[in-house]
Amino acid sequence: MDENTTQGVTKEFGIGEAASFFDQSTGWLRWRERQGVLTDKNGEPLQARRNINAKLGGGDRRYSLDDVREIAHSLRRNDVIDDDDLRVVCAELLLSSSH
Fold first, then answer.
1. Whole-prediction pTM
2. Which residues contact 13 (CB under 8 A, 6 or more apart)?
């Protein structure tokens, strides 16, 4: 899988959109994040960026195309998804990057 196909594209997704790449719920993605299942190649945790809301003190999780690609590869390394699922997600990301 070519890991560089979406690099440089600045499109961002909310947690619902990011979870939908895996046909999962926002709770599923949040749980994977909290459990430390989402890591980069070096085993460092992947963390979503937050849009900070000064009034509420929190922020929405935001994921770039590259973030979702990294999540997909992390899920594959951890046997959460298989090779076919990884190919489908990467193809969907490539389509999303052209819109």
1. 0.81
2. 62, 63, 64, 68
